[in-house]
């Protein structure tokens, strides 16, 4: 029995994937992965450092420069991505549970995430297969064949966040592979487990050794090294603004391609006409709850700024606060739980600090604002925080300006359409936003004026793998998903062929 336990412990530490092999960190360091519902460790992973990052990049570089994957026919690459999608469907329950325990979200959210990951792999498989052999350019001569083609960018460093570990990894890995690249992925050190599982599925699907690299470890060591590494051709990062700017600076030294998704401070604009009937009112309130409190608000596109027309503000906020107070908090794997814990104690303390600053600046607490009482489904050691509604907020408040990444909704009011648009755009970010109205003309006008990468009309949160995702301003650069998401992982090349070459005679010298 002791020998079996020792073998399991050794296997748990071998979570680095380099050159097709699973290995421990060079330093032999490990990290315990905590379940945020009770703060108890339930897994152990390797804690890599710069040396491990270097080894993974070297393997990916070798696989790209000398291996078969970049030269594999598109149809074969697409077939592999579809096999991965099928394996994800096969392991949906296991992976959904792992995502729930690792990130603290509800089990149903975890299952939905796995479905979306499979959709991403299928989408990029279909996209590359549906493309032609390049764009023919008319050179104005029958003696010239000119074509623009797309080639893989090379070795990609993929740095993913802790809130949607596998989903965000798939948004990078699927297009990177579809385009013919090799990659090294660094998941968040807090939530790496489903990414490790995905790398195993890639191998099971037949991906050649060395194409997929994985280094588990901290951002300030592993992530920083990947961003600056001269043999990395592209770095794609999803995370916070501060870390993202560091990645951009590090990548600039070697002038590599950079894609950054850095979050948002997303407005949810509700006009009075969207609440004219009881049914419309119920829908708008329900959607405002979903916008703000799904996954305890730990969503880059969370509708954390409710901007509601003054004439319906009191009724709307009162009902919103009442329903927020009834949200059932608990361990995500328990039946009936609607909202899980925050991912870490640090994230909860950060959330508490934002609420305290808002109250000090004059906000009115309408719901939540504290840690819930412990219960059988909410252990006292878990990182739970009640869904919080802060009324009478204004733009100068820190909680309105900065991304909280917790279950905190601020309420601002407006009287005119112009004022609503001005408030919604008064942010350094520009990832997503929504407008609620029954006036079709107003809906189109406001959506057109909002400076955000995704705008929902009478909805919040849905996305499509075939539609680009990304933001304006400090929400980042580049796009994920859609054709532009694939283009991030490619270089464009113009091939000009002269079919009837002859001397130019530009210079005077001629054969004697």
UniProtKB/TrEMBL annotation:
**PANTHER family in alphabetical order:** BETAINE ALDEHYDE DEHYDROGENASE (PTHR43860), BETAINE ALDEHYDE DEHYDROGENASE-RELATED (PTHR43860:SF2)
Give the top-rank taxon of the lineage listed in the UniProt record for this protein.
Bacteria
This protein's pathway reads: Amine and polyamine biosynthesis; betaine biosynthesis via choline pathway; betaine from betaine aldehyde: step 1/1
Q: Domain Aldehyde dehydrogenase spans what residues? A: 22-495
In the record, the note on similarity to other proteins reads: Belongs to the aldehyde dehydrogenase family.
**SUPFAM superfamilies (UniProt xref):** ALDH-like (SSF53720)
InterPro entries reported for this sequence: Ald_DH/histidinol_DH (IPR016161), Ald_DH_C (IPR016163), Ald_DH_CS_CYS (IPR016160), Ald_DH_CS_GLU (IPR029510), Ald_DH_N (IPR016162), Aldehyde_DH_dom (IPR015590)
Q: Where is the active site?
A: 261
Q: Which residues form the signal peptide?
A: none
Segments traversing the membrane: none
Q: Which UniProt keywords apply?
A: NAD, Oxidoreductase
Give one Pfam hit by family name: Aldedh
Entry protein name = Aldehyde dehydrogenase family protein
């Amino acid at each position: 029995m002791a020998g079996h336990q020792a073998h399991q412990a050794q296997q748990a530490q071998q979570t680095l994937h380099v050159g097709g092999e699973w290995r421990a960190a060079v330093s032999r360091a490990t990290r315990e992965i905590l379940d945020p519902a009770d703060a108890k460790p339930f897994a152990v992973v390797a804690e890599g450092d710069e040396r491990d990052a270097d080894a993974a990049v070297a393997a990916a570089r070798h696989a790209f420069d000398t291996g078969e994957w970049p030269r594999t026919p598109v149809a074969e690459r697409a077939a592999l991505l579809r096999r991965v999608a099928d394996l994800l469907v096969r392991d949906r329950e296991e992976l959904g549970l792992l995502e729930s325990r690792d990130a603290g979200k509800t089990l149903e959210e975890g299952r939905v995430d796995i479905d979306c990951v499979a959709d991403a792999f299928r989408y990029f498989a279909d996209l590359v297969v549906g493309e032609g052999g390049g764009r023919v350019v008319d050179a104005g001569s029958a003696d010239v064949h000119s074509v623009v083609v797309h080639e893989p960018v090379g070795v990609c460093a993929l740095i993913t966040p802790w809130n949607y570990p596998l989903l965000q990894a798939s948004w990078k890995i699927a297009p990177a592979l579809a385009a013919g690249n090799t990659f090294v992925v660094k998941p968040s050190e807090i939530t790496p487990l489903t990414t490790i599982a995905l790398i195993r599925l890639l191998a099971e699907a037949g991906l050649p050794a060395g194409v997929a690299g994985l280094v588990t470890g901290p951002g300030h060591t592993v992530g920083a090294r990947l961003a600056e590494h001269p043999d990395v051709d592209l770095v794609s990062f999803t995370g916070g603004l501060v870390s993202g700017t560091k990645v951009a600076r590090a990548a600039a030294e070697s002038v590599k391609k950079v894609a950054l998704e850095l979050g948002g401070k997303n407005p949810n604009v509700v006009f009075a006409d969207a609440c004219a009937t009881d049914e419309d009112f119920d829908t708008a309130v329900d959607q405002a709850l979903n916008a703000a409190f799904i996954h305890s608000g730990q969503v880059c596109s969370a509708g954390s700024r409710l901007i509601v027309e003054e004439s319906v503000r009191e009724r709307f906020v009162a009902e919103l606060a009442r329903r927020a107070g009834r949200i059932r908090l608990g361990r995500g794997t328990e039946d009936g739980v609607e909202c899980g814990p925050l991912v870490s104690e640090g994230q909860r303390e950060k959330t508490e600090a934002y609420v305290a600053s808002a109250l000090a600046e004059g906000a009115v607490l309408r719901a939540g604002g504290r840690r819930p009482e412990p219960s059988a489904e909410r252990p006292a050691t878990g990182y739970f925080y009640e869904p919080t509604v802060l009324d009478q907020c204004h733009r100068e408040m820190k909680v309105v300006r900065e991304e909280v990444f917790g279950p905190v909704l601020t309420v601002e009011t407006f009287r005119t359409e112009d004022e609503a648009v001005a408030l919604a755009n008064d942010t350094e970010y520009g990832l997503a936003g929504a407008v609620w109205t029954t006036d079709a003309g107003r809906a189109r006008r406001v959506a057109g004026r909002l400076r955000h990468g995704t705008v929902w009309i009478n909805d919040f949160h849905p996305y499509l793998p075939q539609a680009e995702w990304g933001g304006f301003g400090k929400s980042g650069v580049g796009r994920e998903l859609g054709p532009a998401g694939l283009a991030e992982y490619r270089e464009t090349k113009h091939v000009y062929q002269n079919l009837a070459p002859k001397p130019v005679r530009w210079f005077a010298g001629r054969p004697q």
